[in-house]
Design goal:
By secondary structure, the chain is α/β, with parallel strands linked by helices. It has 3 domains: 79 residues, Udp-n-acetylmuramoylalanyl-d-glutamate--2,6- Diaminopimelate Ligase, Chain: A, domain 1 (3-Layer(aba) Sandwich); 208 residues, Mur-like, catalytic domain (UDP-N-acetylmuramoyl-L-alanine:D-glutamate ligase); 134 residues, Alpha-Beta Complex (Protein-Tyrosine Phosphatase, Chain A). It has 16 helices and 22 strands.
Length: 451
């Protein structure tokens, strides 16, 4: 972006403080004051449950500028609007339609695996184009407008992640980013409270098509998606069914990662992905096919995937004290739990699953935690559950056939006891999985063990 303070005020429909430097130029926007070290980055004073960006407005406006919705913070070089979130969306809509007309966007959405697929897609697309990707978890109606405004003018393509928490969000995001193509990674149970069922979640995810000029969408071969997707341009990908238009074959797992052949468009392309699990083969296949459909060179895209690395607490696999550790505590759903257990299943030595609660499932909690318990049997030799709803995982694993002597259950507050037990159980050569929602105590167990 490249707008003066006065232009931003006009686009936002806001009021610029009369003592402002109207022609001060801004080329980026950010809501995190800690990341703003340049005067040409506009500060967006957003409010959250535990923070209020308005506390930093005066400092940000001394040499830069800010957009605010708290009149008590109105000062020189600030723009007062009724809602910062809505103002950013309004500015970003103008910017996308007028200044980024030629930008080709690949949208990534799905219940789990969005960020992983986004990072993979950025590799495959960057091998052929000057491509931007949305930062971190800026995948909402709050974060994506800033990402649209921050796309460098030199970029011809962008990979943008689209998330949701309430009905109607994906359609509004699609109207903003106007994808040329889209990928849905999967349909799971995340946000089931807001949508009532997987079918409701599926229909919401498919509304990514609403803002697209074409129906160039790439999807997994999930029966629910196949049933609900009416797009003529849909391509379904499979890791098991060779009758699909795109599929993976010759899948091999090794310490180096997953090796497979991507079959699409009459071509077969070998891919080596430095990540574990069949779910990551699907993620890679989806973005590889989507990139090909957008004109990327298949061989360059395949080679680029060899540089993939996991991000943050998403399935971080490493070795500590001779123990193979699978740390996956960014989020949790029955689907991501099953995927992580699939990786544990291939581990060496004693396989230990340390599982915690999946949050925000409401009345579905018992049923969905029980589904996870069914997956534990055969994937883990020992099960350590920490949390309140995790008891359903333990109960279900026992009903499925896991010996009760190999199952340990601790309340959430007793995570230190769980850590003490694991200190005795784990030895060099073993494999351990830590998996739970982000706000649980499973991460604290890892910290105590220093794994």
């Amino acid at each position: 972006m490249k707008y003066t303070l006065n232009q931003i005020a006009e686009l936002a429909g806001g009021i610029l403080h009369p003592q402002s430097t109207k022609e001060r130029l801004f080329t980026a926007v950010n809501s995190d004051s800690r990341l703003i070290n340049r005067a040409d980055t506009l500060f967006a004073a957003l409010k959250g449950d535990n923070f209020d960006g308005h506390s930093f407005v005066a400092d940000m406006c001394a040499e830069g500028g800010a957009i605010i919705d708290d009149e008590s913070c109105f000062c020189p070089n600030s723009i007062l609007v009724s809602s910062v979130k809505e103002a950013l969306y309004r500015i970003a809509i103008h910017h996308r339609e007028e200044e980024l007309k030629a930008l080709k966007v690949l949208a990534i959405t799905g219940s789990v695996g969005k960020t992983t697929a986004k990072n993979m897609a950025h590799l495959t697309m960057s091998a052929s184009f000057n491509c931007y990707k949305s930062a971190g978890n800026r995948n909402s109606l709050t974060g994506l407008p800033m990402e649209v405004l921050n796309v460098p003018a030199a970029c011809t393509h962008a990979v943008l992640e689209a998330g949701m928490s309430d009905p109607g969000e994906i359609a509004k995001i699609s109207g903003l980013i106007k994808p040329a193509a889209a990928v849905i990674t999967n349909i799971g149970h995340s946000h089931i409270l807001a949508f009532g069922s997987r079918e409701g979640i599926c229909k919401e995810k498919l509304s990514i098509l609403d803002g697209m000029e074409t129906d160039c969408i790439t999807l997994p071969d999930d029966e629910l998606i196949i049933k609900n997707c009416r797009a003529q341009g849909a391509v379904f990908c499979s890791v098991t069914d060779k009758s699909k238009e795109a599929y993976a074959e010759n899948i091999k797992e090794s310490p180096a990662g997953m090796e497979f052949t991507a079959c699409y468009g009459g071509n077969k392309t070998g891919i080596l992905l430095p990540a574990q699990g069949i779910h990551n083969v699907m993620n890679a296949l989806l973005v590889f096919v989507a990139s090909c459909r957008m004109g990327a060179d298949p061989q360059k895209s395949a080679a680029a995937l060899q540089a993939f690395v996991t991000e943050g607490n998403r399935q971080n696999i490493h070795t500590s004290r001779g123990i193979k550790v699978i740390a996956d505590c960014y989020n949790a759903s029955p689907e991501s739990m099953a995927a992580a257990l699939g990786v544990l299943k291939t581990g060496s030595g004693k396989r230990v699953a340390v599982l915690g609660d999946m949050l925000e499932l409401g009345d579905h909690a018992e049923k969905l935690h029980s589904l996870v318990g069914e997956k534990v049997y055969g994937s883990a030799d020992l099960l350590v559950c920490v949390g309140e709803d995790a008891k359903y995982i333990a109960k279900s694993a026992a009903l499925k056939g896991m010996a009760e002597d190999n199952i340990y259950l601790f309340p959430a507050a007793e995570y230190e006891k769980a850590a003490s037990l694991l200190e005795m159980l784990l030895h060099a050569g073993d494999t351990v999985l830590f998996k739970a929602s982000n706000r649980t105590n499973i991460r604290k167990v890892m910290e105590i063990l220093q794994l």
